[in-house]
Amino acid sequence: MWVKVVVIILMLAILFSLFRGLFFLNKGGEENSRKLVKSLAWRIGLSLLLFITVLLLDHYGVINMREGVLPVDTTPETVVDEAPNESDG
Asked: What is the span of the domain harbouring residue 43?
């Protein structure tokens, strides 16, 4: 449950930064240009943090990203030796 909360908070922070940057883009001006770049930097940093967090959570087994994406065949494979016998001539 706490994993979902952390991911949702990070996503909301990224969206907030996105719309904040859009606001400063529409306003224009020198000072707003600096705020726009700062907002972009925050959004990139938060996105990287979210990406690394999801990768680490998957690596340590807290979440399993591959479970729902690809079907997993759990039946053991049998190895068949198809080498010709020496007695077959």
From this structure: 2-59
